Amino acid sequence: MKKTITLFCILFILGISTFAFPLSKASANSSAVTCTINLVANTQNCGGISNITFVVPPTGGKTVVKLNMNPDEYLHARFEVTYGSAPTGWTVNIGDSATNDGYGGDSGTQSRDAEMQVVNTSMAVYGSDHYSTPGGLYASFSNVATTSYPLVLDVQTEYLKWGVYVGSTVIRSPCSDTSLECALFALGYPSDQRWETEGQVNDDLYAAFNRVINGDYRSGSGVSRVIITLDNNYDDGSTLKSGPSLVDH
106 vs 69, 101, 125, 205, CA distance in Å? Predict the structure, then answer.
């Protein structure tokens, strides 16, 4: 039976993590930085941030960015994704490999090649080659992309959270499953996670909007603006930030 959600309540909230690592935040010492990508005007103001470079500058409403998550500088990346029109096709692809292109594939570039994707209104997360099911589906969620609220994605080592804004409140519900090893992103902390069996060890994270990372042969439309923030707000998943109750959807 089809379910509905009131406009004034949250569509869906959930987060996933494979491990929660203890951390002394003194290991990262850079101040938070933020920039905005406008995919309507095809502009960006990220030029002053050395840890953010463009693989594909904003062109034709599409872009690919590369984030260097050096653990001595930044431990956490946040993407606030605004949909200016109804999402169609491939609108978000965030991955650990320069050749991620959806469905857990990267043509053997990296073994640490976890990725997430938003296609139409649904999100899917695929584990790396070190997941118990190499490259397999780790989690999937429906109705995550909407023009009503920005989609907020928080990324750390072995960790992904997502939620939506209601006013100025971020709603999220992290969970962990220690039975799965190295399924998600490898971003430099802790150091024993910095290993690789196919490519070069690195701390890089890639994000594509209205296309996939490796090319525009899988593309879409709907994302109009992305705000990227790099900071040291490492979340070990030990606390749950509450918000409005989930209703029928």
Answer: 20, 6, 14, 14
